[in-house]
Amino acid sequence: MLQLRDSVDSAGTSPTALLAAGEEAGAGGGCAGAGRPGAGAPRRQTLWPLRIREPTRRARVREFFVFRPGAIEQAVDEIRAAVQRVEDGAVQGVWLLTEVDHWNNEKERLVLVTDQALLVCKYDFVGLRCEHVVRVPLNAVDTVSCGPFQFPPKSLNRREGLGIRIQWDKQSRPSFINRWNPWSTNVPYATFIEHPMAGMDEKTASLCQLESFKALLIQAVKKAQKESPLPGQASGVLVLEQPLIIETYVGLMSFINNEAKLGYSMTRGKIGF
After folding, report:
1. Would the pTM count as exceeding 0.85?
2. Which residues contact 54 (CB under 8 A, 6 or more apart)?
């Protein structure tokens, strides 16, 4: 049987002596059985403290299924094929972004800008299938806001970085019922931030650029409103630089969701979802 003898160093940086049971670490052959060959000193091994290193952002790219070889290409081709040419027009650009809902939950999304519509796609990168698509006519978009996130004064929520919010139907905020329903999808705006692994994969770096998405979206909205204006709605989109307000206070559900990355298709131990 083996015994562990801790060293004097309490900081845990020195090795630990490993001795056989019944042996003492005395000096110069003072152990029992010293007359036997090779028995003058106890058998020792050195155990060094285990150091655990957190994976870098670049190493974590492999945990996201969207960055597996061929996954993003298959998803884009599948969604392009599903675009209605007559109603939506040609695809102008595709982005891999993160949607932040009205309860501050992050969700991985493929976002397409066509001639006539903004398509927000929930794609299952594990099963390689498109689960649902939200279509927003570009001529209904009235405001595009960019800026940092802002929460109520007594809120426990915090979010760093910048985002972009697209609003339509001339509604600045959802109804009371939809605002306090975390599963409601009847919200007249969509908010996006960069994907957490943006810039970590060279092949998909251009798909994660929030600024290029903003520039092409504004251009496409202006063109759609000029060619197909809605009756009774003034043409032109309002572009604002202002805080993006999220009205949550405790945010326990979003904290768990965002910390565990439940809104992303990625490996989780021996399983992936």
Report:
1. no
2. none
